[in-house]
């Protein structure tokens, strides 16, 4: 009987993800997980586990089951709708680099002509 009650109590424990904010204006950062029977207990356990040495101004305990996440296999979710290579260095070809060099040379030539006049 006592064993059954202990097993029921153990099932009520949930995993809480813990986030700490070190100072005002900084983001909350995930620091780990705790098993607790309630959100209040999770905060106490988190304080004892993660804030022994470091100061903080805020602590979040989020039940792991309440976190919605993407699936690693769902590549379509992260697919970009349009080609945005122009935003990265890889989007610039050698031809574009050469055009840019010619443009800068032409500007220098115009500038020198302007200074001569």
From TrEMBL:
InterPro entries recorded: PaaB, PaaB_sf
Superkingdom of source: Bacteria
Pfam assignment, any one: PaaB
Name listed for the protein in its UniProt record: Ring-1,2-phenylacetyl-CoA epoxidase subunit PaaB
